């Protein structure tokens, strides 16, 4: 039920274990339950697989979440610029992985110490508000990273977002509310000195966060420690090799995968399926078994998803995108391979073998899903995330324009009503004045006529 690396940390890192005990105020039974919950969550979420190369480069380049200096107690800071965030449900899972990436980075940096979070709301509006992400962030520190949060400093929250605080506060236990502090350019320096704050927050630090480039991502991918593979006879795992080129990837020194990193789907037509081919080639001297999995089984079909490839042979895997679905940025295919000794194994026996083989003896590689474009993208072409953000901005701009139009119409109606009221009062005054001026002759004539 747990990842081996997490169990190893529990066995050897007393400081890490102490955090759970402190969070539960010395109650060992509750602390043990919290450890169990945290370790199960880490495995189900796949925390150990969250790294820089597994995340979209656009998330780093958006500069909405990044590390920034230290607070007055020496705790590293995660900076969140709320104005750069737009809620996009299709990117929600990847965004959560991105947040976890930085929390894990701070965990590694502090060796089990604490960190601070600054949420700068300067320039933010309703379009930037994401209650789901805020709730996720709070849950992280409450349940899965206990006693690791020093403060969440909320900088210059605009009045339009203040009602959201009442909703957020309802999610928090009393001891957690004290960790959230509302600050401005003056009061924030009680927690972070001016030389560790950017100029826009009243500080003197002029340096800017520099996100990784495509070259950085490529180098990081090549530096990723390869996994180990082994045959079923229990031979000690041997170091695998991961070779990535423009056309193919070789994993474990046994399986060549073409394409190398992405599956490119055509733009879908109505009521028609859309498919691509993955070519797998055995480049080892022994038979290998392969297995193909996806994180979105509702949108795709894989044929065949399991099989055996003899030395020197190849096989084509058909990946079908079903009608009515589009490839999402979060869609991935996991290609796994391991050496075997018997190339005649039946499918049931092969399934049994896969279930009993330790994970560290399996080589794997992920392919991301993207949609082909009509033309080759230029260097300055916008990413899908940037386009989505611009679309959201246009929607917000349209709403604001409609609100302004309604305000103008309302003002016009109020003006006309005011003018009508003024004219009515004026006419009444003129009428009464006329009656008053002619009262001496008017009323006697009426009385004489009828009485």
Tag the structure with descriptive keywords.
CRAL-TRIO_dom, PapD-like_sf, CRAL-TRIO_dom_sf, alpha+beta, 39% helix, 451 residues, Immunoglobulin-like, Phosphatidylinositol Transfer Protein Sec14p, Motile sperm domain-containing protein 2, 18 strands
Describe the structure.
With 451 residues, this protein is an alpha+beta fold. Among the domains are: 50-218, Phosphatidylinositol Transfer Protein Sec14p (3-Layer(aba) Sandwich); 243-371, Immunoglobulin-like (Sandwich). It has twelve helices and 18 strands. It has a six-stranded antiparallel β-sheet, with no helix packed on it. It has a five-stranded mixed β-sheet with strand order 1-2-3-4-5. Strands 11-18-17-13-15 form a five-stranded mixed β-sheet, covered by helices on one side. It is extended, with a radius of gyration of 32 Å. The model is unreliable at 225-240 and 375-383 (pLDDT under 50). Residues 53-209 form the CRAL-TRIO domain. Residues 254-372 form the MSP domain.
**CATH topology name of the domain at 50-218:** Phosphatidylinositol Transfer Protein Sec14p
Assigned CATH architecture of the domain at 50-218: 3-Layer(aba) Sandwich
- Taking pLDDT < 50 over at least 5 consecutive residues as the criterion, the unreliable ranges are 225-240, 375-383
Helical content stands at 25-40%
Structural class: alpha+beta
How many E-type strands?
Answer: 18
Shape from CA axes?
extended
Relative strand content: 15-25%
- The succession of helices and strands, N to C, reads HHHHEEHEHEHHEHEEEEEEEEEEEEHEHH
Overall average pLDDT:
80
Compute the number of helices.
12
- Spatial order of the strands forming the largest sheet: 8-9-10-12-16-14
CATH level 1 class label of the domain at 50-218: Alpha Beta
- Gyration radius over CA: 32 Å
């Amino acid at each position: 039920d747990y990842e081996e690396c997490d169990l190893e940390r529990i066995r050897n890192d007393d400081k890490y274990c102490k955090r759970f005990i402190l969070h539960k105020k010395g109650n060992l039974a509750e602390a043990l339950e919290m450890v169990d919950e945290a370790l199960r969550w880490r495995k189900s979420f796949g925390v150990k697989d969250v790294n820089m190369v597994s995340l979209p480069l656009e998330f780093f380049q958006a500069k909405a979440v990044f590390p920034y200096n230290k607070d007055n107690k020496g705790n590293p800071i995660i900076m969140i610029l709320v104005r750069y965030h737009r809620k996009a449900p299709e990117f929600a899972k990847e965004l959560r992985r991105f947040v976890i990436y930085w929390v894990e980075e701070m965990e590694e940096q502090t060796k089990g110490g604490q960190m601070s979070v600054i949420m700068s709301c300067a320039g933010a509006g309703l379009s930037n508000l994401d209650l789901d992400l805020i709730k996720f962030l709070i849950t992280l520190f409450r349940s899965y990273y206990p006693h690791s949060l020093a403060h969440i400093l909320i900088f210059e929250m605009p009045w339009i977002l203040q009602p959201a605080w009442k909703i957020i506060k309802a999610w928090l236990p009393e001891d957690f509310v004290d960790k959230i502090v509302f600050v401005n350019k003056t009061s924030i320096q009680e927690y972070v000195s001016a030389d560790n704050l950017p100029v826009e927050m009243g500080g003197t630090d002029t340096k800017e966060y520099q996100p990784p480039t495509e070259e950085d991502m490529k180098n990081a991918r090549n530096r990723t420690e390869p996994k180990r593979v082994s045959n079923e006879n229990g031979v000690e795992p041997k170091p695998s090799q991961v070779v990535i080129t423009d056309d193919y990837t070789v994993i474990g020194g046994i399986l060549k995968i073409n394409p190398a990193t992405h599956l490119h789907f055509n733009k879908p037509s109505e009521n028609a399926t859309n498919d691509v081919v993955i070519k797998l080639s055995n480049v080892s001297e022994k038979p290998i078994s392969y297995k193909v999995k996806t994180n979105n089984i509702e949108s795709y079909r894989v044929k065949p998803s399991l099989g055996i490839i003899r030395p020197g042979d190849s096989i084509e895997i058909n990946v079908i995108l079903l009608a009515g679905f589009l490839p999402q940025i979060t869609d991935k295919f996991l290609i796994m391979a391991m050496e075997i000794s018997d190339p005649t194994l039946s499918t049931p026996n092969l399934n049994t073998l896969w279930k009993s083989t330790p994970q560290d003896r399996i080589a794997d590689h992920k392919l991301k899903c993207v949609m082909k474009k009509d033309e080759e993208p230029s260097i300055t072409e916008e990413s899908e995330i940037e386009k989505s953000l611009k679309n959201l901005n246009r929607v917000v701009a349209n709403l604001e324009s409609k609100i302004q139009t309604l305000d103008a119409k309302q003002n016009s109606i109020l003006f006309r009503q005011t003018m009508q009221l003024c004219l009515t009062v004026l006419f009444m005054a003129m009428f009464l004045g006329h009656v008053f001026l002619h009262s001496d002759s008017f009323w006697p004539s009426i009385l004489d006529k009828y009485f």
